[in-house]
Every structure is written in C-alpha cells, then in structure tokens.
Amino acid sequence: MLIEIHMLKNYPPTCLNRDDTGTPKTCYFGGVQRGRISSQCLKRSWRTSALFETLRSRGWRSRNLPGMVSKELGDMPDKAIAHVKKLIIDLLKSDSKNAAKEGNGRKATSSANRGKKKEGITGQVVFFTSDEARFLADTIHSLWEKEAGESVEKFLEIKTDNIKKEVETIKARAITLDIALFGRMVTSEAFVNVEAAMQVAHAVSTHALDLESDYFAAVDDLLTGQDDARAGMLGDIDFDSCCYYQYASLDMDKLRENLKDSPEALARVDELIPVLLKVMALSNPSGKQNSFAGHVAPEVMLVEFKSDKIPLSYVNAFAKPVSRYSTQIVKDSADRLAQEVDLMDDFYALPVAHRAWMSLRSETAPRVCERFGSLADLADACAAWARE
User: Which domain of life is it from (predicted)?
Assistant: First the structure.
C-alpha cells in the first residue's frame, strides 16, 4: 500500500530554511523563481516535534556517538574511556570509496571535516538508536572484562579490528520508526544502511517569489541621551511570504520490512498514520521563528491510498504560477490543486482506493473524494484505511 500526502501551507513573513548566506532557500520551477523548503528541513521538523515524541520510537542524528557510549561505561577509568572514544571514531571513519556524493558530483563533507576538528566526535553524522549505543557499550565492556581483565594497559592494546566482528552483529538489532521512515546512509560497516520508506519532496511556493529584507536596529537602553546613544547594532534579515505545496509518499510495505527486526516499533505502525498526519500538519520548520513566529496549519490536506505503488505528485498544478498579486492566493492554489487531481484522473485513471480532502477556505474539491471537516476526522479515517 502507498499513502500519499499533499498539503498547501500559507506562511506569513518568515525565514524558515536558509542557505549558507542566511537567505531563504529558493528554486526555479515553471520558469520563475520560487520559495523552497528543503525535504531535509521538513523531515527534521517532523521527527523532532513533540507530537512525534508520543510514538516513543525516535533515533538520534549525531556525531556524538562516542559520548553516548561513554555514558554507558561510566565505571571504567578515564584513560580507558578515552580509548573507547578513539575506537568508535575509528570504527566510523568514512571510507573514501564509499563516501556519499552530492548530486553535482562533489563529495559531501561534514562540518567535522571542515576547519579544525573537534576531539571525541565522529567524522560523519550517524543516525542511531539508544539500543544501538547500548549494544556498542555492552560489546566494549565485554572486551574490557574478558580480553583486558579490567587492565587499562591491556585495554589500550585493543584495536578497532578486535571489536569490528562483534559490532557487525548490530545489523540485526532493532531500529526506530524515524529511521525506518526516513532511512539511514552510513559509510561504515558498523551500521546497516536503511532505505527510506517515505519520500519527501522539497516544498515549493505555488507562486513566484518576492524576496524582501528587514532592516533592523538594536537600540541601547542605557545610553539614551548620550552622544553615542544610538543603535548598538544594525543589520538585516531576508525573508519571504509563500504558499507552499508539500508532497510526500509512504510505502507501508517497505516500512514494515524495515521494522521486521523491531517488534516494538512494528506494533506502533497502526498508530503511526494518524500521528504522522498530525505531525506533518501542525509542525513547522524552526528557522528564525523567534523573529517571525510563522506557525501555521495547512489550508488544504489531500491524502490518497493506493494499492498500486505508482506515486504521483500534483506539483505541476503550479507549473504556471498562481498570481502573486492575488488577494485570494490560498483559494486560487486550492482550486488549482483540485483541478490537477481531476485532470490526472481523467488522463491516467490511476486506481485510488481512498482519497481524503480537507480545505479550510475553498469549496472546490476533486470530483472523487471524501471530504472532511476536521483534522481529527481525517486522521481517524486514514488510520482505519491503513488497517484494511
């Protein structure tokens, strides 16, 4: 079964997802520049949300695996703990032949590989679970007791190769729901790669982008009335205001396959669907939120269930941009989306077992759909359909 989620979210002035210059991310689509939120940004906002935490099945993306393992080994001497960190760092060193590459052919680099390296952390960000960290700690503690006889001198002789064979059994251990959903790619034999069950598109604005800049001054409270009393700092922040189309597809069979060694997480798959829909609807990227407070809920949600795994985005509804000068940009975008659904139905007739539609302000809807008046009702219906 394939579940596809489409949303329209209309944001006020925000700077949700920035590039290396601090400017909101953009792209070209349909011949014009659009606002963009990267899929990485969206996924992080979902998996770190308070709602996702209710599933009690979340991993960690971090270079501090040595620190996590060391906490589990607090009874070992400091010199031995330092060696533990070195062993884990060596275990997770990137293999240059297998290093991840960006789409333009350049090798992806971690912040640890740029500039001065920080001691005690791995060179690559690793997506791992608490169980995996504990397993590493148990394996190393066993070597400390049985191979080194709790002797620091003997323990310092242990090499990465001594633990690699034991550590490779970590591949059969349980993973969390977020790893099963969004996947994991590592360049070390210590962890198994996980192919994502969920594909997430970059969000793009339904209209052409107007990028603006906020010029601000930090006024000194205590130097008022003195010669040098003016602004203590001057600066500017780029921002935009966009109505975004968001799309994601979830392969339920792949999700269950990823969780075959994770009975506790697998048991939560049925409760995942309504929670995931609420997470996607009610979570927003955290970029510059203290300055803009751009917290919104979807204007439109469309959820489709397909037995045939033929994913289909409706992004081309906006290949011709909605007028950015329209005073009804949300309604115009919703109408476009409904029309695109009908167009795809007419031309391709892809079988859809269930289609749920929720719209706050537009009466337009696809010809074939079940309309819902609340997120709770939509989520409950989708949960029931997922169990069929």
Answer: Bacteria
